[in-house]
Amino acid sequence: MAKIIAMMNQKGGVGKTTSSVNLAACLAVAEKKTLLIDLDPQGNGSISIGLSKDKFAGKNIYHALIGQIGLKEAIYESELPYFDICPSDNNLSGAEIELVSLFARESKLKNAFKAIEKDYDYIIIDCPPSLGLLTVNALNAAHSYIVPMQTEFLAMEGLAQLLNTVKLIRSSLNPDLELDGILLTMYDSRSGLHKQVVNEIKTHFGDVVFNTIIPRNVKLAECPSFGKPIILYDIESKGSEAYLALAKELILKERFKGNSKENSKETSAKNNGSSSVAQEIKLPEEELLDIIPGLETINFDGIQI
Ligand SMILES: Nc1ncnc2c1ncn2[C@@H]1O[C@H](COP(=O)(O)OP(=O)(O)OP(=O)(O)O)[C@@H](O)[C@H]1O
Ligand SMILES: [Mg+2]
User: Fold this and answer.
1) Model confidence at 95, in pLDDT bands (50, 70, 90)?
2) Under DSSP, is residue 37 helix (H, G, I), strand (E, B) or coil?
């Protein structure tokens, strides 16, 4: 059964699509069968892996969401084995309005996944830069989410709103939704400000931040115009190294989580399910929301973020 991950941040241009495409491709080279869902009407993910718009104009995520076709019919192979994509184009912007009147409008994607989730190890959803119905569908369908965050001035602007949305989804639609982590992107090691932003975010958010930091790398900006993920465009680039490291980190995290779940099952069996057994840890969103107000007032060389 696939692990379904939503790549989300309502802020534009923070690296959601770059991270979705390249993480998916790197999971695929690790022989994890991976499906990329392009859930953004901009269709940048679809173009980034070289699919021609004519090929999928009649069958894509839009048609699957409004129930015209099954999701399987909207899936296309990529150049890489183990890597498929369900593309989108600007028709999808209409879906947000069309879905409003439909029954169970927040669960369209979740229901569509039922037919295909057993075929994949990972499904990565590239969300649009908004917290609208498409992102709600993604968070309802997902097991977890990743928040790409640019290591920049005002990096955390909007994070409280994002976490509050997630809290709402957890309480109403998807109680098991987990945070995989905050992914720092477009990091420039020569910039003092970037270093400070990374230090502050890591100090305050700790384990919630991925160890892998995605550097600013011109090859990552170039490869979409060649219709290739970074590992097919330049395997030796810093961008390739970073996304391969991210895929590895994610796979290991998953394995570790699997083991600790097994261990806690054993512990609770030993304790006969007594109430003294430690309950699940506090929701990460709650903790992060507690931290953010403090962080908002931190000064970086006189600049506030
Ligand atoms: N690590 C990086 N190094 C250099 N350029 C990058 C990097 N990551 C992303 N970019 C470039 O920054 C721009 C924005 O990235 P991307 O499209 O991935 O962001 P996004 O969050 O998906 O944007 P949107 O909110 O519009 O969907 C793109 O031109 C992309 O090529
Ligand atoms: Mg995008």
Assistant:
1) confident
2) strand
| Residue position matching structure tokens 């953004």 | 40
pLDDT tens, position by position, 194-208: 998 898 888 888 889
Q: How many CB atoms lie within 10 A of CB 293?
A: 9
Decide: 15 in ligand 1 pocket, CB within 6 A: yes
Which residue range forms the structural domain that includes residue 33?
3-304
Cα(274) to ligand 1 centroid in Å equals 49
Name the CA dihedral angle for 264, 265, 270, 276, rounded to a multiple of 10 degrees: 60
pLDDT for position 101 = 81
Q: How far is CA 175 from CA 79, 139, 169, 172, 253, in A?
A: 36, 11, 7, 7, 20
Q: Which atom of ligand 1 is nearest to the CA of 12?
A: 25
Task: Read off the CATH number of the domain in which 36 is found.
Answer: 3.40.50.300
Q: What is the pLDDT of residues 96-151, one digit of tens each?
A: 888 888 778 999 999 999 999 999 999 999 999 999 999 999 999 999 999 999 99
Q: Which ligand is nearest to the CA of 149?
A: 1
Domains of the chain: total: 1
User: What does each C-alpha distance from 172 to 51, 102, 130, 177, 206 come to in angstroms?
Assistant: 36, 18, 19, 11, 28
Distance 38 CA to ligand 2 centre (A): 9
Q: Phi first, then psi: give them for residue 149, nearest 5 degrees.
A: -140, 125
Ligand 1 pocket check for 127: Cβ under 6 Å: no
Residues 210/249, Cβ–Cβ less than 8 Å: yes
- Give me the helix-helix angle, 192-205 and 284-296, nearest 10°: 140
Give the up-direction half-sphere exposure of residue 247: CA atoms within 13 A in the CB hemisphere.
27
Residue 269 and residue 267: Cα distance in Å, rounded?
5
